[in-house]
């Protein structure tokens, strides 16, 4: 800790009082902006913690004993001075959210054990000095959000298109080649590189047009009957409906009903 900051004894006393119980019953401890340069030793014995916030400190290294915090589901270490991660971080298999943004991490400092975090849904590695990821991250089958912004990537990591549950990928402000990235991602239709609000009007219109075309094609495939008799049955069921025009197809299920006089 910095000179003039709390001693470990004082910090321990403070931490015991600072533990909160969240609405879903989790034990949360926030030690953000405490001037820490190391992880307090007493903290490594708090194996019943579920959420730990050590953000906005000056921590340079995590101890191997960090792996003992097996009850953690959320670990926030953003805005520190981390230069490496211990292999033991792979023992925190209960983690669903891991924030390592705004540190001093490089590709060499990312352990392969990160791929053992099988319940991880959100991983933020933005604002570091990373140009490649461990291939073991392909094992993160439930990962939904991956933050890689403000790093040194020249291309999208090879395994990213294989992350079947990934719905948000942030690669903003990297020196990657857009053409190469699009080639790798062309088979993953639901992968977004930027937020919709950051798109210009023309680009947004183009994306929406392509999305509507995909939806129309999917509907056509779904409506092709396997047998002729199924087609006749469909006509009977929807005899009171006219064929939707192009606007109706775009706005989804907007139909005109023919009135029988």
From TrEMBL:
Transmembrane segments: none annotated. This is Leucine rich repeat containing 18. Keywords: Leucine-rich repeat, Repeat. Pfam families: LRR_1 (PF00560), LRR_8 (PF13855). The lineage of its organism: Eukaryota, Metazoa, Chordata, Craniata, Vertebrata. The keyword Repeat applies. Gene3D superfamilies: Ribonuclease Inhibitor. InterPro entries: Leu-rich_rpt (IPR001611), Leu-rich_rpt_typical-subtyp (IPR003591), LRR_dom_sf (IPR032675), LRR_domain-containing (IPR050216). The keyword Electron transport does not apply. GO terms for cellular component: cytoplasm. It comes from Xiphophorus maculatus (Southern platyfish).
């Amino acid at each position: 800790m910095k000179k003039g900051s709390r001693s470990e004894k004082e910090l321990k006393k403070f931490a015991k009082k600072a533990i909160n119980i969240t609405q879903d019953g989790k034990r949360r401890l926030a030690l953000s902006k405490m001037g820490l340069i190391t992880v307090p030793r007493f903290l490594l014995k708090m194996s019943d913690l579920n959420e730990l916030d050590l953000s906005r400190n000056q921590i340079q290294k995590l101890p191997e004993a960090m792996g003992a915090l097996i009850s953690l589901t959320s670990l926030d270490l953003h805005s520190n001075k981390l230069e490496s991660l211990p292999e033991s971080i792979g023992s925190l298999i209960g983690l669903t959210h891991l924030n390592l943004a705004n540190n001093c991490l490089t590709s060499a400092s990312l352990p392969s054990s990160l791929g053992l975090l099988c319940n991880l849904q959100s991983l933020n590695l933005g604002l570091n000095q990373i140009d490649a990821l461990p291939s073991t991250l392909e094992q993160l089958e439930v990962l939904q959000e991956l933050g890689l912004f403000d790093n040194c990537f020249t291309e999208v990591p090879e395994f990213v298109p294989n992350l079947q549950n990934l719905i948000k990928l942030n690669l903003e402000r990297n020196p990657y080649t857009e053409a190469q990235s699009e080639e790798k991602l062309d088979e993953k239709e639901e992968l977004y590189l930027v937020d919709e609000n950051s798109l210009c009007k023309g680009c947004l219109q183009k994306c929406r047009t392509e999305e509507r075309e995909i939806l129309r094609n999917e509907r056509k495939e779904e409506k092709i009957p396997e047998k002729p008799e199924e087609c006749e049955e469909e006509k009977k069921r929807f005899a009171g409906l006219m064929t939707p025009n192009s606007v109706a197809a775009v706005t989804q299920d907007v139909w005109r009903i023919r009135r029988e006089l």
